[in-house]
Amino acid sequence: MIFADKLIRLRKKSGMSQEELAEKMNVSRQSVSKWEGAQSVPDLEKILQLGNLFGVTTDYLLKDELEDEEFVGKDADSWRKITLAEANEFLELRKKASWRIALATFINIVAVTQLIVFGGTTTLPEPPFSENTAGVLGMIVMFILAAVAVGIYLYTGAQSRHFEFLEKEPFETEYGVVGMVKERQKAYRDTYVRSNIIGTCMCIISPVLLFVGALSETEFFTVMMFAATLLLAGVGVIFFITAGVREASMRKLLQDGDYTPKRKRRARLSAKVSPIYWGIVVAVYLVWLLVIDSGKHESQSWVVFPVAGVLFAAVLGICGIIDRKNGM
Predict the structure, then answer these.
(1) What are phi and psi of 283, to 5 degrees?
(2) What is the full DSSP assignment across 69-123?
(3) Angstrom distance (rounded) from CA 323 to CA 328
(4) What is the DSSP letter of 27?
(5) For residue 72, is pLDDT > 50?
(6) What sign has the CA pseudo-torsion 39, 45, 47, 49?
(7) Per-residue pLDDT for 89 more than 80?
(8) pLDDT at residue 69, as a whole number
(9) DSSP H helix total and E strand total for the chain
(10) Which terminus of the chain is more exposed, N or C, with fewer CB under 10 A?
(11) Nearest Cα to 183, choosing from 68, 91, 95?
């Protein structure tokens, strides 16, 4: 959307005529008419004045690619501005993070898989371990691998902690950032699609190994095929995660998809409401279970949670309406 169209929309949204806008800008009505007719563009001083008048950022006025009304805000002056260097740094961090997150997730899958393998060894004619020993060894290895995975998650999170606001708050970008990100997103599109296809195919094919194992009369082979099924699906998950994390990093900078200012606002609202709402739900459940149904053989208190889950979306919707009306 070009500057002229944005100016028309902002003026009409504010309920001003061209004469009224001209008076506030200390220019002639003909000048405003030329701006809106794309016959001329105001100088930088007037652009800044228009931004202050309508409560929008200069980026929104000048960048044709910014069309979403969510870029309009009364507190835009307090928004952080992302430079081209910061955008490149963030993308590189998330590229490395995608592999770390995928690796940590795969390690978690291996942690569960090796527990199955240890258990499977007890089905051999001459098992190398007793059932108790196999169980203990499997648990020890599982906790070690889980600790490694958690360490990777924590390290990855710490590396990009100073960019957390990209997921939670609206922000501005310097000139050139949006164009750079869109170019990288376009260049990555084929890889993103290919990775998702490979990941999907691996997850679909993985149960074939389980079926092959089911055809065997050897219990150990069946168990091994089950473990192989999990590992193959885990490899598919690696493709999903690496592609998804990198694509999400670009969408965060573009404030697109799940990262528009509107959805960020909704996420912040959910974070505020959820603890209170679910705290009340748990309290209701305990009162029902311990007081109302006390002494009964079968309690119906479990119904609280599915009903609460259904009502949660409605609660968030009502809170969102109130929030917008109060301008919070």
Answers:
(1) -60, -45
(2) GGGB-TTGGGSEEE-HHHHHHHHHHHHHHHHHHHHHHHHHHHHHHHHHHHHHHTT
(3) 5
(4) S
(5) no
(6) negative
(7) yes
(8) 44
(9) 12, 2
(10) C
(11) 91
Strand partners, 81: 172
The closest alpha carbon to 186, from 248, 250, 240, belongs to 250
Q: Is 55 left (phi over 0), alpha (psi -120 to 50) or beta?
A: left
Strand partners, 56: 72
CB burial string 22-45: b at 16+ within 10 A, e below: beebebeeebbebbbeeeebbeee
Both tokens of residue 328?
A: 């919070």
Distance between CA atoms of residues 10 and 141, nearest Å? 62
**328 pLDDT more than 50:** no
Kind plus residue range of the DSSP H or E element containing 171: strand 171-173
Q: Which of 107, 120, 191, 188 shows the shortest CA–CA distance to 148?
A: 107
On the CB side of 64, CA atoms within 13 Å amount to 5
Q: Supply φ then ψ for residue 131, to 5 degrees.
A: -60, -45
pLDDT surpassing 80 at residue 227: yes
Residues 94-108 have a mean pLDDT of 95
- Does residue 302 have a pLDDT over 60? yes
Distances (CA, A) of 172 to 26, 44, 50, 169, 277: 28, 18, 17, 10, 33
Question: Minimal CA–CA distance to 7: which of 81, 79, 45, 64?
Answer: 64
Question: Which residue has tokens 């999903």?
Answer: 240
What is the C-alpha to C-alpha distance for residues 110 and 143, in angstroms, rounded to an integer?
11
Residue 326 three-state SS: helix
Calculate the average pLDDT of the chain.
83
**Could you give phi then psi for residue 128, rounded to 5 degrees?**
-70, -20
